[in-house]
From TrEMBL:
Belongs to the cyclin family. Cyclin U/P subfamily. Keywords: Cell cycle, Cell division. InterPro entries: Cyclin-like_sf (IPR036915), Cyclin_PHO80-like (IPR013922). The keyword Transmembrane does not apply. This is Uncharacterized protein. It comes from the Eukaryota. It comes from Spirodela intermedia (Intermediate duckweed). GO terms for molecular function: protein kinase binding. PANTHER family: CYCLIN-P4-1, PTHR15615. GO terms for biological process: cell division.
């Protein structure tokens, strides 16, 4: 899997891929959740600590590159953060990844992954500074994210390998169109096609990523 991490700018290819992918998902979900398209009224939103009042001025790509540059997390943290986002989305279907939530979900998932995976990592105050939020807000983000996950943080080698394989396949395809269901379920590693085929159902489109 070493080729997943190569990049001329020394930023792992996966980091660039993940940012591009999440940007597409956020834009797609904006139409469904923020603007009320696709039969999902804005009044049905669940407003949480992950929601900003307005769309941040920094792009998802620049934001994730900033996290990669300053957080000094191991590359595996970004795969684990991706897994956490999947688990969170499945458990909290009303907290969609949109332009108002994607940045906070990213900084929180990476921080939680770094704490779980790396022997040494920065504290909440540092991640808050990297993410452009206050330390108090970072604390609330972490708390709500952990509760949203049901504190299910363990990632087995087989689950990690399944996600890596799935990500590698999707990187090769370069996502010609942004599917609303993009994760390989860690409960059913072989069901990616079944997940994708359900994209037309309204209750399924509420998945954040």
């Amino acid at each position: 899997m070493a080729e997943m991490w190569r990049s001329p700018q020394m930023v792992p290819r996966f980091v660039g891929f993940l940012s591009s992918f999440l940007q597409r998902v956020a834009e797609t979900n904006d139409a469904l959740w923020i603007h009320g398209g696709g039969g999902v009224p804005p009044c049905h939103h669940k407003v949480t600590v992950f929601h900003g009042l307005s769309k941040p001025g920094i792009t998802v790509a620049s934001y994730l590159e900033r996290i990669f540059t300053y957080a000094n997390c191991s590359p595996s943290c970004y795969v684990v953060a991706y897994i956490y986002l999947d688990r969170f989305s499945r458990r909290q279907p009303l907290v969609a990844v949109t332009s108002l939530t994607v940045h906070r979900l990213l900084i929180t998932s990476v921080m939680v992954a770094a704490k779980f995976m790396d022997d040494v990592c920065y504290n909440n105050a540092f991640f808050a500074k990297v993410g452009g939020v206050s330390t108090l807000e970072m604390n609330f983000l972490e708390r709500d994210f952990l509760f949203g996950l049901g504190f299910r943080l363990n990632v087995t080698p087989s689950v990690f390998g399944s996600y890596c394989a799935h990500l590698k396949r999707e990187m090769l395809l370069e996502f010609p169109s942004p599917p609303l269901h993009c994760f390989l379920s860690d409960e059913e590693p072989s069901s990616a096609s079944a997940v994708a085929s359900a994209a037309g159902h309204q209750h399924q489109t509420q998945l954040a990523v």
